[in-house]
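Protein modeling request. Please complete all fields; requests missing the sequence field cannot be processed.
Requester role: graduate student
Desired output: 3D structure, token encoding
Chains: 1
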Amino acid sequence: MSDFEAEWAAAAEAVRRCLGLAFDALVEGGLAVGSVLTDVHGTVLAEGRNQAYDDGPGAGPLRGTPLAHAEMNALGAARTAWDLGALTLWSTQEPCSMCTAAAAFTGVGAVRYLAPDPWSLAAETDGSSGVAGLEAQPWLVAANVMFLRSVAEAARGAGEPATLVRSRELEPETAGLHDSLPPGLPAGTPVEAWLAELWPAVDEAATARRRRVGR
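Delivered output (215 residues):
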């Protein structure tokens, strides 16, 4: 079993901040996706979280609109004078076609992500970014557990959301971990405190997933 504190300390700043932003979105009842722009040294220069489903007062012209994906908000925090070709756009989930197009249009140098997008997998439209994910299994599981919980909590009406149902087939380890969590949203603790408590289960799910996919 890996040690959370050591794994967290060893993770790139972009990984930690993306997960932190996704957790912030989850706590606020939004869609748990976080994104950052980093320079060649890995320093975070701009950031954003998904705000497409946020309502009420808040900052940001995209808030509460279909454009307010995490990556779009991170790109919106960049400055025109920056050399975006030297920067990397990171996200907890694989960027959709809109965000991938925005990254290409603005000339971002590289795109990285932690986990496949459960919604895209369920809709059989994965691979929008055209680049490989980070393949760090614990962070993949952590990112998608948050994503699934935000989807489940936002669901309205009878029955479970198709994304969660399909994830049990396609990503059984992550979906199983999600199903084992207590109901409701996590309290507003730091993401590292939440992950530290959950880490044995995250590590177990990541190990099982690694065996299943062979990497």
